[in-house]
Each structure stands twice: as structure tokens, then as C-alpha cells.
Amino acid sequence: MCIPEGTVEKLSAMFQALFPHLDERQRRLTMGAEARSLGHGGIRVVAAAAGVREGTVSRGVGELESGEAPLGRVRRPGGGRKRAADLDPGLRPALLALVEPDMRGDPMSPLRWTTKSTRRLADDLTRKGHRVGADTVADLLREEGFSLQGNSRVLEGASHPDRDGQFRYINEQVKEYQAGGDPVVSVDAKKKEQVGDHHKAGREWQRKGEPVQVRSHDFPRMGEPSEVIPYGVYDLAANTGWVSVGCDHNTAGFAVSSIRRWWQAVGRQIYPSARRLLITADAGGSNGYRTRAWKAELAALAAETGLEITVCHLPPGTSKWNRIEHRLFSHITMNWRGRPLTSHEVVINTIAATTTRTGLTVRAELDTRDYPTGTRISDAQLQALPLEPHDWHGNWNYTLLPQAFTQVSTRPPKPFGQPSECAAWLCHPFVTGLDHTEWEALVRALGALHDDQREALTLQRRGRDRKHPKATNTGRHPKLTLVDRLLAVILRDRFALPRRDIAGLFTVSVDIIDIRIKEVRQLLKLLGRAPEPAKNQPATLAELRYYIENPRTISSREIKPAS
To answer: In terms of C-beta density within 10 A (0-12 exposed, 13-18 middle, 19 or more buried), how is residue 6 classed?
Structure first.
């Protein structure tokens, strides 16, 4: 077959334009097809035009004439460099020993306590003689069934044996109340949120390269609101939410106040004829079943509103099953993702703008009232509440009747600067060695120094100033007042009375007396007012009291002289 003139030039121009877009096998097949179309002598002409060996073109013709199906790849199976795992049989076991040290390797491997990234794994394997890259490590892990995974929050600890029974009981109560047209609400406190231009998890659409700028740290600034506490009330039947945004403490008083505000603003309008209210709540926190103040506040709410309030607590360790968590709080979190909560107004408006496709609506209000901590409810006060426990787990399920109840008065805590009743008789000049004016001055100076020292230690431990002004008459009250401690030092250092007798006077242990005496001695040393031994020393507390009540014997009879 005669090859037309100019064929080589035309083919050369075509190959130069086409070959850069083809891989090795495609170029070979293209040249073979052109050679077949030219007939006899076509292999030589195509090789000259493409600038390759005739054997390469002949190989392409052979591949076309073999009738093989398309390979779907450039190289045939087995072609190319051998895989690292094939060249190094110990690579795969060494990798598995690193990622699973408990089962296949050393449980004390240093990599166990670091991030198992593919780069770290590759570096560690290379140090052990297995030269490999991060991409190869990733491929081997995938072949072994590994993937990047986060933690799975499924472990709940020990579950109560009546857990399922309590859930069934709550379900029956909810159905009964809803069938009767009575309100059923789920309540809980959301986690505290920082107010200010702080980082907020999540992302929002912004202009490229123009993210919302926030602080590099989350420390609050002086003089600006620091945190808010959203407390929610979710109505299961109406699919509506109420959120009180508190600025103080998450106490039982704040929790019940939020329920009260929901009832006054929303609840009594939706349920004008309701006489009962069912509340489902977690087992712990400000609305926990062991929180006495929660029950006392609910009793006051029941008497105020005339509602018969029933509370059903979820079993311990099951707070994530509370309806408010995934019906209200989760949507609020999604609504303010990536959005700094720069002010109280932003918090309120963002919560109030939360909606869902199922029709959820939310109302939010700011609660700026103070809710001090440390409220104590005595056993007598608890017994006086109109509380009826249910037959099934009365500690988890109970009803507060709308009855006026007698507020049991409790003895106010003894002032820290005054002695206990058992030690008031010791504030006598014969015991203290000071007249009343000097004694009161010493107590005041000691109290001021004690408060300053305690505040300094608290600041050192906390690492920052207080967020709120120091509350008064809150928290656990000490067994020994400051005057009790000072009198203990006087009895020990001035009269050398036994520690056991001093501890028995104040009804505390000898260890407590030793600790308090040591603390007050240090304060007195700073004031330069260490007590001097008395000239005459009674042998016992009874003898000391006798001479105080009979002052004439002090001058007429010599007591045991001081050594």
C-alpha cells in the first residue's frame, strides 16, 4: 500500500497536539490504530512521526488485535513498584502494635499517651527501621478496618435496678395528665454561657476572609457581665419553651422562680382551668430529688397558685433523656452556633428567635434578681411541708398540695464574733485578763485580720477576684465561732487546762481544737497579743466557773499558783 506524501508531517502534528493529554497506554493504542489504518509500512511511518521505536507501535497494534477488554487502568495488574507492606513483612504488625498497644504491643508505649496521627505513626515506624510515609500508614490502617472516630458517649455507669420502671411510671403520669388537659412540663438548667465577645463553637456564613473576631482567651473583664444561666421550661403538649436567663446562681429558688414566671406569663393563659401541674426533672442539680430547698420553694408555689404540683424525677444518670434537652436546648445551641453572645440582649433575642419545622416557639426573659446560695432547710421545716410521696419510689415521685403550711422558725446562726451559749460565761475579766473594752477591741482586731487572711487565701486558690459580691449568712456555718477559738486559746495558754476538757466544752474533737488553737495563735502573734499565764490557775473548768460565780474567793483564797 502506497503511503501518501505528507502523511508523516500530518501525523507528527496530530501526535504533538494529542499526546500531552494521553497516558502511556493510550498513546500506544492511538499509534497502533493509525498504523493499522495505513496498512503495510504504517508501523514505520507512525514511529517516525511520533519519534518512538517501531516496537512500541507494533506493541500497540498487537494490543488492539488481541481483542482484550479495556483494562480501566494504565498499568496491568502487578505492574509498578511493589507495595511497602509487601517489601517489608514486619511493617503491618509493627503498625498494629502501635495503634493497639493493649492487645498487640507494649502497653507502656510512649505513643499510647500522644496523638496517634499518621505522621506520628510514620515517624515512630521509621525510627524502628520501617521506612514509610504518612499516606502509606493511612492506607494500611484503612485496610485493617480502622477509621478516624470520636468518643461515643454511651457509658452511663451503674444503673438503678428500677430505672426502666421509673420511666414507665413517668410515661403513665404524663399520659394521664395530658388526657385530663393538665399541663406537663420538662425543666432543667442549660450550661452556663459567657457573655462578651468570646469564642463560640460552630460556623456561620460570612464573607470569605472576614470571620467574626473574638478574644484570644475567655477570661472575663472587670465591670462587665460574665456569665448567664438559662433555665428552661418546656411544655410537652403545646411544644413551647420558656427560658429565664439568670445572672446570679443556679439555686432551687431560681429554678422555681423560672417555673413561676412561666405559669404567670404563659401557663395560666394556655390552661385556664388547670388544677394540677406535672413537672419532670433530672435527679440532681438545683431541681434534684434530694434538694430540700427545691421542695420548699415548690410548696410555696403550690400554695400561691392553687395548683397541685406533682414532680417525677428521672432516674440518676439519665439526664440526657429529659425531653427539654433534645426538644429545646439542642435547638438553642444550634441557633447561636458561631455567634458570640456579646450582651444580655443578644442572649435573650437569640433564644427567643429559636424555631423548628415542627412549630417550636420560645419566650425568654432576663432575671436579674439575686439568688443566694447556702439556704438550709431543717428536718422540722421539711416535715412541715404539705408533701405526699407516691407509693412508687416516693423519693423520686411526690406531690405538693396547695395548702398553707407553717414556716418552722429555726434558730439563726450564731454570729462569728460572739461566743456560743456554752462558752458565754468565759467572757469574764478573770478569764480573759482584759476588761470589757479591751476584750471587744481584741475581738474586732482579730476578726478583721481573720477575714483579710481568709480572703487572701481564697483569692490565691481561685486565681482571680470574685465575680459577685461576697454573700452573707450563706454556706455551712462553723461549729466554733471566732470568740470560741480565742477562748480555747486562753483556756489552754493562760490556764493550762487539758485539751480534752476544752474539746468537751465546745462538743468537738480534740483534733479540731488543736487546729483552731494553732490558727488563732498565729493571728495573735501578728497582733502581738499572746495571752499571758494567769497568776492563779484552777485545775478544772468546774473550779474556774466556781471562782467566776464567787468572785470573793479569788482574793480570799489562793488558787494553784502558776508554774
So the answer is: exposed
Round to whole Å and give the CA distance between 157 and 493. Answer: 53
Triad 252, 249, 343: Cα angle to 5°: 130
Amino acid in the structure at residue 62? G
Digit-coded pLDDT (tens) for 251-264: 999 999 999 999 99
**Helix, strand, coil percentages for the chain (3-state, nearest 5):** 45, 10, 45
**Which residues contact residue 483 at a Cβ distance below 8 angstroms, ignoring those fewer than 6 apart?**
417, 418, 419, 423, 427, 443
Distance from C-alpha of 145 to C-alpha of 365, rounded to nearest angstrom: 51
Interatomic CA distance for residues 221 and 467, integer angstroms: 10
Residue at grid coordinates 458517649: 153
Question: Grid coordinates representing 551?
Answer: 468572785
* C-alpha to C-alpha distance for 424 and 487, rounded to whole angstroms: 10
d(CA 490, CA 428): 12
Q: Do the beta carbons of residue 340 and residue 198 sit within 8 Å?
A: yes
With 50 as the cut, is the pLDDT of residue 558 above it? no
Contact status, residue 397 vs residue 311, Cβ threshold 8 Å: yes
Query: How many other C-beta atoms lie within 10 A of the C-beta of residue 503?
Result: 17
pLDDT in tens, 328-346: 999 999 988 888 888 899 9
In the chain, the amino acid numbered 32 is G
Burial class (CB in 10 A: 0-12, 13-18, 19+), 116: middle
Contacts of 202 (CB under 8 A, 6+ apart): 334, 337, 338, 339
Quote the DSSP letter at residue 75: S
What is the distance in angstroms between the CA of the first residue and the CA of the last residue of the chain? 140
Whole-angstrom distance, CA of residue 277 vs CA of residue 309: 5
**Side chain identity at residue 92, one-letter code:** R
- Residue 519, all three cell numbers: 490558727
Q: What 3-state class would DSSP assign to 14?
A: helix
List, in order, residues 6 or more apart from 310 with CB less than 8 Å away.
173, 177, 276, 277, 278, 279, 397, 398, 399, 400
Distance CA 42, CA 52 (A): 13
Amino acid sitting at position 70: P
Whether the CB-CB separation of 312 and 176 falls below 8 Å is answered with no
The residues with which 243 forms a beta bridge, in sequence order, are: 232, 364
- Using alpha carbons, select from 186, 162, 535 the residue that is nearest to residue 330: 186
Q: List, for residues 459-515, the tens digit of each pLDDT value.
A: 776 566 665 555 555 556 678 899 999 999 999 999 999 999 999 999 899 999 999
Q: How far apart are CA 432 and CA 426, in angstroms?
A: 8
Q: Taking the CA atoms of the chain, what radius of gyration do you get in angstroms? A: 41
